[in-house]
């Protein structure tokens, strides 16, 4: 949570400062400083945020993917407390969502939704659209785990829309890849393989890491029966693992899918080789789920190789480890979740009480200061009223002047038009008096203009048509047109331009 202050409270405080500036700046600052210290002391540092962010977005995901749920729960609980201490709202929301996903995997759906509600309550104060995307993707995951696939798709699609607001490219990619991956699983379970394949590609293109590449290889292998493409993406995943630091789960996934690829190619020896490498990762990292699954794949390969003794041995190890995992998962479900939820709810209740108290206090101060401001400035109202009246008088005078000027221009226009129609010798002199700016502009581009040409330009300025000019100057329309063409050439007016428009804009 950034501070205990809501956005509406910030608006009140800004108003308070503006009103009170003319009254007593020092006192206003002192009051604000006393009641709103969170505004002046930002405790979070870039290093703190980086450490929390890495823990929430990288280390937690690695533990989760590896099946170390208890360690992941403990890590997120610590990171949430640290985020609360430095008032890092994004860290709090992400931590709650991480815990919700882990609890969903453990089958504790009611508690999972409780943590989603905590995330929503935290994000409500900041209205962070990026974190809203994380919340929607978490909801989509939980509903998918409960087999409410339509409801899940509803939230996953909303998550994709909101994810566009996440500024951090890596975080945005992780959210979108996570969302696309679970849309793929939904369509796979619905046997809509084309859609599943489409979203597996979207996940890879959003975050082209080793894991997403391996999953895409799996989709090519089973959805498209395209062994070459499957092998290509597994090779890509292998290169990514060599190039970057990878998690045990990413390496396990790569070896497992290489094993499945060779199993489809009926190269059982190579398949067994990769399953053994996957098994080795499970044992070395003490990840029992990966070890258990590797025994199952090795059992299948042994059966395909007609090695019944090895198949039976692997099946026995698989069964023993499955039972052990089932007992272990029950212990992990004893994590004190209910008390943690209760503590978090109480913390939010306390913050809400403090916020209400602070809002009430600031409202009282604001009211008192506003009354003092009104009382002090009551005498200014008369001065302000007089000033407005003076301004109105000035505006009225200017409007009268403008109206008179318009009338004068109108009268001048009508007069020169009348003189032009009568072919009166005074026409040109009067035209220059009414349109001095036009006359000066024309002289700049045509300094040696004679009176006849000037008169012709004046008639064009007055918008006389060819027929009108012909009638009032006693020449033929053909002669008028020839003069227009000569004038175009003299003034460099292109044939594409309207000569009347050109003259009027001069």
From TrEMBL:
Family as reported in the entry's similarity comment: Belongs to the Rap family.
Keywords, ordered alphabetically: Cytoplasm, Membrane, Repeat, TPR repeat, Transmembrane, Transmembrane helix
Record GO terms (molecular function): DNA binding
Protein name in UniProt: Tetratricopeptide repeat protein
KW Transmembrane (keyword) present: yes
Transmembrane parts of this sequence: 357-374
TPR repeats: 252-285
Classification via InterPro entries: Bac_ResReg_Asp_Phosphatase, Sig_transdc_resp-reg_C-effctor, TPR-like_helical_dom_sf, TPR_rpt
One record GO biological process: regulation of DNA-templated transcription
SUPFAM superfamilies xrefs: C-terminal effector domain of the bipartite response regulators (SSF46894), HCP-like (SSF81901), TPR-like (SSF48452)
Gene3D superfamilies found in the cross-reference section: Tetratricopeptide repeat domain (1.25.40.10)
Cellular component annotations (GO), alphabetically ordered: cytoplasm
Taxonomy, superkingdom: Bacteria
Subcellular location: Cytoplasm
């Amino acid at each position: 949570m950034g501070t205990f202050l809501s956005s509406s409270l910030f608006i009140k405080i800004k108003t308070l400062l503006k009103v009170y500036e003319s009254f007593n700046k020092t006192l206003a600052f002192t009051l604000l400083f006393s009641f709103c210290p969170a505004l002046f002391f930002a405790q979070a540092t870039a290093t703190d945020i980086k450490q929390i962010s890495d823990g929430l977005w990288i280390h937690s995901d690695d533990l989760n993917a590896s099946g170390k749920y208890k360690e992941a729960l403990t890590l997120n609980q610590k990171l949430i407390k640290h985020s609360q201490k430095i008032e890092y709202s994004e860290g709090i929301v992400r931590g709650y969502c991480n815990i919700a996903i882990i609890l969903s995997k453990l089958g504790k759906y009611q508690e999972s939704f409780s943590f989603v509600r905590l995330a929503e309550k935290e994000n409500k104060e900041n209205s962070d659209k990026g974190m809203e995307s994380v919340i929607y993707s978490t909801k989509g995951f939980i509903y998918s785990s409960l087999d409410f696939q339509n409801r899940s798709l509803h939230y996953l699609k909303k998550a994709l829309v909101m994810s566009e607001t996440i500024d951090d490219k890596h975080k945005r990619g992780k959210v979108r890849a996570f969302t696309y991956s679970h849309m793929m699983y939904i369509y796979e379970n619905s046997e809509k393989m084309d859609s599943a394949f489409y979203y597996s590609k979207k996940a890879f293109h959003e975050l082209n890491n080793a894991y997403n590449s391996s999953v895409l290889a799996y989709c090519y292998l089973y959805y498209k029966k395209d062994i070459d493409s499957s092998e290509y993406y597994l090779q890509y995943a292998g290169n990514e693992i060599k190039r970057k630091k990878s998690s045990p789960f990413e390496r396990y996934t790569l070896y497992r899918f290489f094993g499945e690829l060779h199993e489809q190619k009926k190269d059982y020896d190579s398949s067994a080789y990769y399953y053994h490498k996957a098994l080795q990762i499970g044992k070395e990292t003490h990840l029992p789920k990966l070890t258990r699954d590797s025994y199952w794949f090795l059992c299948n390969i042994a059966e395909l190789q007609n090695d019944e003794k090895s198949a039976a041995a692997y099946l026995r190890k698989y069964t023993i480890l499955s039972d052990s995992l089932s007992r272990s998962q029950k212990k992990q479900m004893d994590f004190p979740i209910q008390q943690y939820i209760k503590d978090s709810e109480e913390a939010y209740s306390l913050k809400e009480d403090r916020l209400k108290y602070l809002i009430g206090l600031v409202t009282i101060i604001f009211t008192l200061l506003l009354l003092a401001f009104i009382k002090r400035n009551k005498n200014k109202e008369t001065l302000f009223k007089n000033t407005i009246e003076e301004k109105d008088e000035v505006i009225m005078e200017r409007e009268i002047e403008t109206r008179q000027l318009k009338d004068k221009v109108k009268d001048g226009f009508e007069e020169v038009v009348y003189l032009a129609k009568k072919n009166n010798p005074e026409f040109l002199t009067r035209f220059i008096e009414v349109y001095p700016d036009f006359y000066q502009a024309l002289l700049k581009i045509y300094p040696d203009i004679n009176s006849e040409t000037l008169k012709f330009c004046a008639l064009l300025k007055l918008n006389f048509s060819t027929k009108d000019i012909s009638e009032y100057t006693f020449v033929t329309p053909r002669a008028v047109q020839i003069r227009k063409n000569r004038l175009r050439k003299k003034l460099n007016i292109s044939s594409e331009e309207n000569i009347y428009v050109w003259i009027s804009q001069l």
